Amino acid sequence: MGRLVVVSNRIADPRKTSAGGLAVALGQALEASGGLWFGWSGKVVDGGTPGEGELRVQNAGKVQLATVDLSSEDHDSYYLGYSNGVLWPVFHYRLDLADFDAGYIAGYRRVNAMFARKLKALLRPDDVIWVHDYHLIPLAAELRAMGCQQRMGFFLHIPLPPPLILAAVPEHEWLMRSLFAYDLAGFQSEADLNHFARYVGTEIPADVLGEHEFRAFGKSLQARAFPIGTDVDEFVELGKGREAQDMFEQMRREYSRRRLLLGVERLDYSKGLPQRLKAFRQLLQAYPENLGSATLIQIASPSRETVDAYAALLQELESLCGGINGNFGELDWMPVRYIHRNVARKRLPGLYRAANVALVTPLRDGMNLVAKEFVAAQDPDDPGVLVLSRFAGAAEQMHEALMVNPYDTARTAETMQRALQMPLEERQRRHQALLEGIRTQDVHWWRENFLTMLTELSQS
Is the pLDDT of residue 117 over 90? Predict the structure, then answer.
C-alpha cells in the first residue's frame, strides 16, 4: 500500500491523548506510511472569500497535518447549513428539525470543491485516500473531475436512513451518485448497508454485480459494513492513570451509599436524553426502594448551542432535572446530578468504572463508542451493567447488553431496575462476553479491515 491520506472535516494530532482512540488508530496507520491528514482548521475568517482558504501544512512526527480555513459564508452554508442543518437531522431520522434552505447546498459543493483543489496539490500518484463522514461525501467526485486516479474509500460515521427518508434531502440523487466516485463505501451497521442497497436499487437504479457490489454511471462500487470499535488497550491504560484513579476514588467516596446510573454524551437531540430522564423518573415512581439510593449522573457536553433545536433541548433537560429533584429529592440526596460541561477524557475511565449502570439510550446513533468504553473500563470481578438502545449501531454487536426501546419509558424503567438488581454472576458473564467482542472488533480491526479491502479492490 502507498501513502495513506486521511481526509475529515476536522483533524487531530494523533500524538495527543486527548485526541481519542480513533485519532490514535488512524495516526498509527499514517505514521507507518508517512501519511497525510487533511481537513478544516477550525478557523473561520470573517470577510474571507467564499471557496478560498489558506492552506497550512505542519509535521507531527512522520505525519503531515494539512488544514484549510473557511470563510464565514462557507462555514455557515457548508458546516452549519447543509452538513449539520440538513444531513445530520435527516440521517438521524429527524425530518422535523431539518432546515432545507436551498442556498446551503451551494456552499457544501463549493467547500468540497475547494478541499479537493487544495488536497490535489499535495497528492502523490500511489496514495490511498480515505475520506470520512457526511461533510465530505462528494469529495472523491471532485477529485475525479480533476483527473485524480488514486484509490479512494469513504466511511460514514453516522447512520444512513431508509430510502424514503433519505429522499427528503435536497439533491439526494446527486449526493448518492457522488459515492460512486469511490472504490469502497463503508457503513457502521448492516442496517445502514441495507438502507444503501435499497436506495441505489430503487432510486438510481444501479446494477447489482454481486453481494454489495453495484455499478452505475460507468463506475463499480463495493459497499460493506465496518462497525467501528474503540482502542480497548489504550482505554484500559488510560484507566490506570492518576486522573482516572482520582476520579474513581472520589466517586466511590461521595456515592458510597448510592447506586450510580451514568449517561455521558454530547447534548444532541439524537441521544434520547429527555426520554432517559422520563424513564428514570418512572423508575423512582414504580420502584420506591430506589428513593434515597439510586442516583443518575448525566453528563451532556455543550454542542451547537446557537442552533434553536439545541437551545430548546437544553431548556427541556434543565426543566426535567429540576422537576425530578424537586419532587423526589431529600436534603441528603438529589436523584439527578446534571453536568452541562465537558469531562476530560483522562478522567472518563474512572467515572465509568464507578458506575453500576451505564445508560446508552440514543434514539438513533451510528455506533456509540461510549457503550464500548464503558465495558472496557469495568472491573471484571465486579462489573457494571450496560443498558443499550436497540437503535444504536452498537446493538448489532453487543447482544449481551440489556436492550431497550428508548421511546418506551415504562419498559426502559423496568430494564433499569433489572440492571440495578442483577446478580454478580450474571453481570460477570455478560461483561466477559461483551469485553471479548469489543477486543476482537476493536478500532484497529476496523481500520485494517477497511484498508485491506480497499487495497485488494484496487489491485483486482
Answer: yes
Burial class (CB in 10 A: 0-12, 13-18, 19+), 248: buried
Kind and range of the H or E run holding 140: helix 139-145
Predicted pLDDT at 460: 44
How many Å apart are CA 416 and CA 181, to the nearest integer?
46
CB atoms within 10 A of CB 246: 13
**β-pair type (213-216, 207-210):** antiparallel
pLDDT of residue 23: 79
Question: Quick check: 170 and 107 in contact, CB under 8 A?
Answer: no
Distance CA(449)–CA(444), nearest Å, equals 8
pLDDT in tens, 171-217: 999 999 999 999 999 999 999 999 999 999 999 999 999 889 999 99
Least confident residue range of 206-210, 352-356, 372-376: 206-210
- The cell for 321 is 432535572
- Mean of pLDDT values over 373-383: 98
**Count of all residues that appear for the chain in the document:** 460
Rg, Å, the chain Cα set: 23
Mean pLDDT along residues 324-346: 95
11: helix, coil or strand?
Answer: coil
The whole-angstrom separation of Cα 133 and Cα 152 is 14
Delineate the domains of the chain, giving CATH numbers in brackets: 4-229+443-459 (3.40.50.2000), 232-439 (3.40.50.2000)
Task: For residue 340, give the DSSP letter.
Answer: -
Pairing of strands 151-155, 184-187: parallel
Rounded-to-integer distance, Cα 161 and Cα 189, Å: 11
Sequence-distant (6+) residues with CB within 8 A of 257 are 293
Q: Sheet harboring 336-339: ordered strands across?
A: 336-339, 294-301, 259-266, 357-360, 385-389, 402-404
- pTM for the complete prediction? 0.95
Tell me whether residue 439 is exposed, middle or buried, using C-beta atoms within 10 angstroms of its C-beta: 0 to 12, 13 to 18, 19 or more. middle
- The pLDDT value recorded for residue 9 is 95
Task: Return the closest-CA partner of residue 190 out of 379, 353, 348, 367.
Answer: 367
DSSP letter at 206 equals: P
434, three cell numbers: 461483551
Q: Is the dihedral of CA 316, 319, 323, 325 positive or negative?
A: positive
Q: What is the DSSP letter of 205?
A: P
Q: Which residues are catalytic?
A: 157, 365
